[in-house]
Amino acid sequence: MNIEFQLNNKNEMIEVDPSRRLLDILRDDFGLTSVKEGCGEGECGACIILLDGKAVNSCLLSAGMIAGKSILTLEKFNETDEYKLIEKSFLEAGSVQCGFCTSGMVMSTAGLLNVNSNPNETEIKEALSGNLCRCTGYQMIIEGVKLAVEKIEKEIPLVKSQSRKEEKNKEVPSKQNVKLQRKSLVEILNILDDRDVTIISGGTDLMVKNAGGSGVKPKFKNEPLFIGALEELKQIKLIDNEIHIGSAVTLNELLVNENISEIFKKSISEMASFPTRNIATIGGNIINASPAGDTLPFLYAVDAKLVLKNKNNERMISIKDFILGPGKTIINSNELLTEIIIPAKIYDVNYYKKAGSRKGMTLSKASMIGMISFENNLVSDVRIAFGAVASTVVRSRELEEKIIGKTNQEAQSVYFDICGEYEKLIKPIDDSRSSKKYRKDVCLNMLRDFFVKFDK
Amino acid sequence: MKNNISKAIDRVDGKGKISGETKYIDDIKFDNLFYAKTVRSEIPKGKILSVKIPTLPKNYFIIDKNDVPGINRMRTVVSDHPIFTEDEVSYIGQPILLVVGADREIISDIVNEIEIEYKEEKAILTIEDAKKEKAIFTDYNYSKGNTKFAFQNAKIIINDEYQTGYQEHIYIEPQGIVAEFKDDIMHIFGSMQCPFFVQGAIQDVLGWETDRIRITHSTTGGAFGGKEEFPSLLACQVAVASLKTKRPVKIIYDRNEDIISSTKRHPSEIHYKVALDENNKISALTIDVNFNAGAFSGISPVVLQRGIFSATGVYNIPNLKVMGKNYKTNTVPCGAYRGFGAPQVVFAIEMLMTNIAKKVKKNSLDFKKKHLLKSGDFTATNGKIRDKIKLPEMIKIAEKISNYKKYSADKKKFKGVGVSLFSHGCGFTGKGENDIKGKIILQKKGKQVFINVSSVEMGQGAETALRKIVSHTLSIPIENVTYEIPDTKKVPDSGPTVASRTTMIIGGLLRSASIELKEKWNEKNDISISRIYKHPDFLKWNDDKFEGDAYPVYSYGVNVAEVEIDPITFEIDVKKMYAVYDVGTVIDERALQGQMQGGMLQGVGWATTEVMNSVDGKLVQNNMTDYKIPTTKDMPNFKCEFVTNPYEFGPFGAKCAGELPLTGPPPAIAEAVSNALGISIKKIPITPEYLMEAMKK
Questions:
Q1: Quick one: which of A227, A377, B39, B688 is 20 to 30 A from B311 by CA?
Q2: Which of residues 305-324 of A touch B (CB under 8 A)?
Q3: Could you give the CA distance from residue B693 to residue A408 in angstroms, rounded to a whole number?
Q4: Which CATH number do you get for residue B473?
Q5: What H or E segment, with its residue span, contains residue A312?
Q6: Which residues make Cβ contacts (< 8 Å) with residue A79, sequence separation at least 6?
């Protein structure tokens, strides 16, 4: 198919198989070799480019996802004044050794500066958490970014804002010429009704699961259908004390939305890496139905409702009835998950803990969310859910009800009973990340920790 | 230009890398290029009964053992790895054949259609299995003093055992080589540490003389030992492919392929028997070092040598018996990785010291200090320590910068500090350097000086360091010194880029040549000065008995680790790593900081998150998602300092550096964790799973 997009400020139209990786297109078709392949699974960050100004792994994007978008690689970014100061700072700070991760580091820095012109060390670490480096130990890269921020602020503050404005002004008129090539929701639902397709939202899982390796396009089960750019699926609205989240809202979009609760944000912020969260969507995380999906414990805890649409109808279903097991849901092939509805209610004490293999970019070995509210010194509601320790999220309303209506002291006294009951429900497995035993123990530790926390 | 050699300058290769302009092997254009994809064994051990190949489209080829004109073995220390499998496979991932052609989609389809039928045989999968089956590649031992007497008179005898796991290099640039057969010359380009190793390997596989084999180095995106011997295998395969197809053939590994098939750090089991005398001093040690070498021996014997020669760490052990074995198992072959066998045994000896100290109720640092080697003492192999050992002074600095006394007195649960003391033998082991006799050529044409060496830039800063050494000696700007890209047609064989010998040995030869060039500077004609390494006469080594100077000199380090353990999940947070190093003279402060911090984070990873297990001969963590190297969120805060202790034969007094930083963190972290939780740590990686179980006991 023909795809129009903007590449390094120039409009391009290419005839391409929509499942081909952007990484291959940039390197092989356009000779943009600053974009490196280090892993092909969205882990190393050597292939990071800017997609509409945001840092994204180009190995996780396919041609079908870039229609109407603007892409910036280091080949163009290195002409800017901002870049020149980054270069100077990286040299001064000793940020470079083998150099293979460096272009990705520079592009992640560019992406960070687009959203935050004065980041602190924690924010820099977060922004670079999707860029692996094996040479430097990172400290001297972080120093380089800090230095660049200082230099940009101090030496040419005007140029920075000017170039930003210019760039934005340049972008808008030229991008209007680029055909969006986006289908409407109605068109999508018609296609779903017509034939079997593989729906791709953010693509961060499907692109890896179906990867064919360098220069080989991912092989999807059916013809890929890209829904990630659908405006109808990208809204977050507060309606009657309920938050309606479009299924193609990205994880980073959730993190900056004022309606989303801090505890949900905490669980999201520990997912994947910064660039992956720029494209990974909440709908994708739900449909994947992975036992380790980290949005799920929260969504189960709040009894999230899912809106499924087909050409003619829509139905609403609670998440616990939607997910059947690992990778299995009740969705029909002609249906699309369009919306996730969660209550806006905030609990008094909120607890989230995740055990992973490391702090950045890690899948859960086990996780727990706990939320509790009190009224007149009695527990008015409590929600407890565990992730990654059974085929689906573990939650029991029956056990929660044993706590409701009790004083804090009484609640503490039922802890041992409840703990024993949860122990029966938690059925983890041994896998490449952890062991059955550890997962169970850590869940029970988390449960106790939650009880200790709300006891205060 | 009277500035201090240590003063930092900008990396000469920095700009090209930051701007994205530098070309790595996969970025270089070749006309009429073919790609190659490897078909590999899917079973750990067995005979190949049949290989079913689909009908190949025009201009697509299968390259296998039948295409090898010369010897079907990769030349290295022990040349036992087949270039292409013959009848028998010995590990999962062993290369059987290549599919070669122009379009990677078509190649991928062909690969998927190939069917291989095996007759599976019982595999040896662990060191335990190998012990039972007596599957041993290498069996070494040496001794010193009278261990028998010391054990007879011991007050206490302690038995102990330590284990370390695999470590994968995770150079961010995967393995990649291009072979181009043109004008009767086999020309190899690629990511590698040792162009002349590759040349030698090609010589065997093609059966040609070296004048028809040319190797050109391409910018290498990290190596850490992983591109020492391993690239020779890829190079031999694509050379055979290019010879057959008459086209340039490129092979670039996907990450998963790289992880399952490339060499790794040897997993180890190390047993100790300790004799303590009436003063609670170690009077004798029996050390039994066991490495899992994998399916082929390759470079493993020399890795084991360094392991056993480093087995007493920085301590003076008068009576010693050391045994070392490389076991043959049906798992991925292990090979060179930064530190080369030493980090395993240093972890073990440091933890042994910690645990004995605990047993005799002594402070571990005091106990270690009581055993420290000093100038005039003898090493494990009875080599005389000629240089000053500055460890006592370094320990004081480390204590000061880390506020060690305050933190170690703080007995808060789930928080701890640990200290490690360590050294690294500089350059090749034993007579290695004398065997290689590295050669360099320094040329002056007009105002420009050219460095001709086969030592490569792979991120460690070799180009900057070597140009700096020459320009500094000649008092000319660094721009007037050119580092020629290592190309076997143009540069002499200075030996491989390994073991920190680039700065110490090659840098030393360049410095010596530069001094001569300086004297001749005003001569009008072009000048060419060469140097061949000569082993200093005072170094004595008996390779049969393993006796004498295993290394010309040692570099030293002290690490302090500060950790916090999550009381709920038992995840380890390495908060801070402090280090004091003696690497002789620092050639470039900033470049060395980078080497040290980067090496330390590799040590942190190996000690904590980098879990790699082999189950039924298959690596469970076989991609970057499952094999976890530290991210920006996992790094500790680093603080490294240096003491100056010049080595007479190093350029400006420089010794080795790159291996040292990986060695220190694992024992320092393990001791810190042990102090935080009040348990003994016996193996790395220290996983939360391991800690949770240990805490139950």
A1: B688
A2: none
A3: 32
A4: 3.30.365.10
A5: none
A6: none
Rounded Cα distance between B491 and B510, Å, is: 13
pLDDT at B510 over 60: yes
Q: How far apart (Å, rounded) are the C-alpha atoms in residues A139 and A128?
A: 11
Q: Is residue B153 part of a domain?
A: no
Residue type, B515: I
> Is B456 found in the same domain as B317?
no
The backbone torsions φ and ψ at residue B581, rounded to the nearest 5 degrees and listed phi first, read -125, 145
Is the same domain home to B489 and B449?
yes
- Asked whether the predicted pLDDT for residue B2 surpasses 80, the reply is no
Cβ distance A137 to B601 less than 8 Å, yes or no, reads: yes
Across chain A, mean pLDDT equals: 94
Residues of B in contact with A359 (CB under 8 A): 571, 573, 631, 633-634
Q: What ranges do the domains of chain A cover?
A: 1-181, 182-346, 348-456
Helix (H, G, I), strand (E, B) or coil at B79: coil
Q: Tell me whether residues B628 and A358 touch, CB distance under 8 A.
A: yes
Q: Does B174 touch chain A (CB under 8 A)?
A: yes
Q: What's the pTM? A: 0.97
Write out the residue range of the structural domain in which residue B179 sits: 31-121+175-252
CB proximity A74 to B under 8 Å = yes
Q: How many domains does chain B have?
A: 3
Is position B155 within any domain?
A: no
Give the pLDDT score at A170: 45
pLDDT band at A158 (very low <50, low <70, confident <90, very high): low
Q: Is pLDDT at A168 greater than 80 in this prediction?
A: no
ipTM at complex level: 0.98
Whether residues B425 and B438 fall in one domain = no
pLDDT number for residue A175: 58
Tens digits of residue pLDDT in A324-354: 999 999 999 999 999 999 999 999 999 999 9
My answer on whether B381 and B370 are in the same domain is yes
For domain A348-456, the CATH superfamily is CO dehydrogenase flavoprotein, C-terminal domain (3.30.390.50)
Q: Does domain A182-346 bear CATH number 3.40.190.170?
A: no
Distance, in Å, from the CA atom of A255 to the CA atom of A236, rounded to the nearest integer, reads: 12
Tell me: pLDDT of A172 over 90.
Answer: no
Residues B595 and B663 in one domain: yes
A-chain residues within 8 Å CB-CB of B563? none
- Burial category of A408 from C-beta neighbours within 10 Å (exposed 0-12, middle 13-18, buried 19 and up): middle
Both B193 and B273 in a single domain?
Answer: no
Q: What is the pLDDT of residues B136-163, one digit of tens each?
A: 999 999 999 999 999 999 999 999 999 9
Q: Do domains A182-346 and A348-456 have the same CATH topology?
A: no
Please choose, from the candidates B336, B339, B328, the residue with its C-alpha nearest in 3D space to the C-alpha of residue B296: B328
Average pLDDT of the segment spanning A387-408: 97
